[in-house]
Amino acid sequence: MHFSLYSIIAFAVSSLAGGHVFYFVDVLRHSLAEDLYICLLIYPAVFIVSLRFIPSEPEIPLKEERVGLTRISIINGTSNILIQASDIIFITASSPYY
Predict the structure, then answer these.
(1) Which range marks the domain in which residue 30 is found?
(2) Is 33 among the domain residues?
C-alpha cells in the first residue's frame, strides 16, 4: 500500500511540476526492486511488536440478576385477580386443561 501511495504521489507531483514525469509503473517497479526487504522484514516486525504493547481488555463477567415471579394474574371469566406469588400454595386447573 505504501509503495503504491508513494508512486501515485511521485507521479502527481512530477506531472504538476512539469518537466520530467515519473510514471506510476516505473516508480512502483523501482520501489519494489529496491525496497522490498523493508516490506518483508520491517512491517511484520512492527506488527508483532505492536501486538505485545496493545493492552488486552479483561473480560467483564456478566451479573446474573434473578428476578423471580412476584405477582400472578388470575383470570376467571370477566374477573381479573392479581395475587402475590408467595401466597400460592397449590395450583389446579379447570377442564379441559387437566
Answers:
(1) 2-53
(2) yes
Bond prior to 58 in cis (omega within 30° of 0): no
Provide the domain count of the chain: 1
Read off the pLDDT of residues 63-84 as tens digits, 9 standing for 90 and up.
Answer: 777 777 788 888 878 888 888 8
Gap between the Cα atoms of 26 and 11, Å rounded: 10
* Global confidence as pTM: 0.41
Do residues 11 and 21 lie in contact, with contact meaning Cβ atoms separated by under 8 Å? yes
As a whole number of angstroms, the distance between CA 98 and CA 47 comes to 68
Say if residues 54 and 60 touch (Cβ distance below 8 Å).
no
Please give the grid coordinates belonging to residue 28. Answer: 512502483
**Alpha-carbon gap, residue 15 to 31, rounded angstroms:** 19
**How do residues 23-59 score in pLDDT, each as one tens digit?**
888 888 888 888 888 778 888 888 888 888 777 777 7
At residue 9, what is the residue type? I
